[in-house]
Amino acid sequence: MRYSFIFFCFLSFLGLANAQESYFQQQVNYKIEVTLDDEAHLLKGNIDITYINHAPEALDTIWMHLWGNAYLNQSTAFAKQQVNQGIQAFYFAKAEQKGGYTGLDFHINQQAIDWHFHPQHPDIAYLLPKQPLAPGDSMHISTPFTLKIPAPFSRLGHVGRAYQITQWYPKPAVYDAQGWHPMPYLDIGEFYSEFGHFDVSLTLDADYVVAATGTLQTESEQAWLESLARKEPIKKDSSQQKTIRFTAEQVHDFAWFANPDFEVDRSDVPLPSGKKVATWAFYLPKQNSNWSKATDYLNRAILFYSEKVGEYPYPHATAVQGPLEAGDGMEYPMITILSVQSDPKLLDIVITHEIGHNWFYGILASNERDHPWMDEGLNSYYEERYTQLYYPNGLELLPEEFTKDTEFKGNALIYYLQANRHLDTAPDDFSPDISDINYLLGAYAKPALAFQYLEAYLGTSRMDSLMQTYYQEWKFKHPQPSDLRQHLEAGSATSLDWLFDGLLYSNKQLDYAIIGAKKERGWMLRIQNEGKIAGPFEIAAIRKGKVVKSKWYEGFQKDTTIRFGRGNFETFVIDPDYKTLDIDRRNNQIKTSGISKASTPLQFKFLLGLGNEKKNTIYYTPTIGFNSYDRTMAGLAVYNTFLPARPVEWSFNPMYSFETGDVLGLANLNFYAHPSGGIVERVKAGLGIKSFNYQSIETDDFDYDLQYLRITPSVQLDFRPKEGQAFRQKLNWRTLLLRTEQANFEQTPDGTDVNFDWSSNFIHELHYTGSNTQSIHPFRMDVRLEYQDYTDAFDENQYYLKGSVELKYAYTFQRKKRFHIRAFAGAFLLNSLTNDTQPRGLFFGSYNLVSSGYNDYRYDNFYIGRNETNWLASQQVSIQEGGLKLPINSPNRNIQGSNDYILALNLKSDLPFGFPASIPIKAYFDIGYYHDITPFGRGKTFSDQLLWSGGLMIDLFDEVLGIYFPIVNSDNLELEALLAERGSYWNRITFSLDLQRLNPWKFLRTANP
Q1: Helices in 359-510 by DSSP H: which ranges?
Q2: What is the 8-class DSSP label of residue 604?
Q3: What pLDDT sits at residue 974?
Q4: Nearest-angstrom CA–CA distance, 26 and 31
Q5: C-alpha–C-alpha distance, residues 900 and 517, integer Å
């Protein structure tokens, strides 16, 4: 075995040596001279690039990044991503706010060449040299360029005379063993660039204070900055210009920032080797209180990373405060820009994080576009260690009342909440359309947690040693995930499948459970892997509330029995210090004695908050309600979930009516499953119960209430969206068992008596939804099929099958201003009533142009009064079916319903001007046609069956609450008669109230900002 092992190691060494020999990277050196025109906001100049080919093959094409062109128009990848992220500022930017290049004229070795823009991306171009560039040879690529600097929509931009000049010059894409890597500029999604030397000269007005990558070579400018840092009173002169020069070695990008109002601080930090690094802070005067210790934070961060990872190689580290629109901070070699931070502690953490990027972005230049976690995740891991060192109590941004019951903080909380909803994506899966929260989770939070897990498993000193040798081996190179994995596995002499294949390359979950503890010459513990990752885990033995013994075990699939050892223990706990990413900790402990050793403790909590991950939390809150029949109701809602999501969720809300004495209310039970593959992303099986009174009768002879009970089993399939697409689809089937109480009058010798019985009927509905919730032009389509058989008022069996299509589209014509279109078509595909030789009136299932309480036969919505003909309750409508807002519904009279078909169009629009106090007033117009096949419809003309109305509305949260003020309507005689019955204008005002859309459980299950 020994010799076999040595032979295996020898073969591995040969493979590693061959891999190292095949590695290459190109070198790109820049000489740039530009002038800033701060009146036209232009950069004008020339660039000369020396491109050195270290590849083993000749290059006949050179791909170039022209990232300044990302701001040309709404068709760039950046513009499209902004729309997908719900950001409208750039889409509606004025021409003078946009940016891009003009004057490009590429030459190679001073000869004109053919070059072209990428067919889809104007911020990518390719050059065609006259001769292929042979291995070992170099070429000079040159061009003049003029860059129009945009407003600060992302990283490059200006606000007045405050400039942030980043991703600003033509730059060759990376060519490595995998080929070319041309990539469009993105706001979310970073970069991959070649190392080289920079020689940059900037000409601009003399009053500008400039901070930049590299070493300032202009002595007079250096002396001026030093005097500013000493707070000496100096007059700034904008009437003259100056040219300042910077050089930088072994960097792959160059950024600079200019503002005449910058204040400057300077310090030095000595490294253990004896080298001194200059630290600079450039900030605006109003940030003086927060930035007063910025250089201290810089010094501390440089020392921390130099100790943990490797010595800082550059001459300075600089932090700049500016109008950044791409997150809290953005890193460049030797320099970082930060947005305004409200708290000195947050400023410290953001500075530390951004300075840390010098190691995991600047020096270890991985492909951040494809593998953002290699920079952001590793850097966040060290940021967390820094935070624990200097702020051991953490920097929680959520209220303590919300988080006091959970041990999860920061990154762990983000992962826990998103993964429990199965909405997370694998860290290594980057898409331009990824949501903000999944980018935060996949690039930053989860990888940081994964490497904390690895540190706990290996030990801190071993982890630090491995990362230090990784840094030394790969600094100033382009390490890939496979290189990091190979290094860690070789150094730790163990497989890290659980880390890479499990936590970084997938969204599989880790979940170990203790399901048995038995004493047999020591403790034997039965452990079950209920997840899909076989990661290592720690088991601790507890006595009197303290850990008295702990051991790490290698991971496994399914279940196994492990020997823990002897001892007098009260409890065994998996992962007592929360070092792993175990998704369900309620099964992580077991008592050694007692009746229910593995039972999960129960706790009650008022209203909402994060549940305790080791307990079953039941929430409760008092509730009140009101309708015209039950009047005031009071109850207690009890539910098992707020956050995090659970595979089984329930809520129970009984309510007592003080008017009727009835116990009413709602209840829901839902089961969730998440298939690991295929077209279905989530399956939801549910059961809902709802019961209230729907009518009250009070006369001289009678006083009674009628009640309904609805029981609704359902199954919903949420389909997995295609990669990079925001279009979501779901299919829902439900059956409604409706029981409604009916009053039967009977003549007796003593007069009229009333008896009550219950009628029952079933409604079956299949409902497809397809939607795209993009911020500019969102749309949604709903298709429904409904079947019901029932007994009519003449005790005859009837049936129908009907279908409808509802389309919603919003055209955004100004920033945050939309024109909404809703179209509805509903028709009976089968209807026994239409085959009747004697056409009947409207029965169950009729389509209506106006949806209100009395025709809500499915009891889907909540109404103040379902059968009211006057006061406020009669003015409530719903935006369903025809969607008209006319107050003409009556259980005794209907001029807008059909057992055949209806067509409707609903329009509403934001007004191009605002109102005081931001009152959300919009214009609306509705038009609809109903085909009346009742006896009352005989002789009706087309215009008799066409209704329309319009006016102004107050629209809160897209008609969660809408109030409609009519101005015009069709001159249909029956409509005019019904409106006349309403009396005053105020009785013609209607309102909608969609409480279903305020369901917090539904929102928390699906929200993915």
Answers
A1: 376-390, 400-403, 410-420, 436-439, 446-458, 460-474, 481-492, 497
A2: E
A3: 81
A4: 17
A5: 68
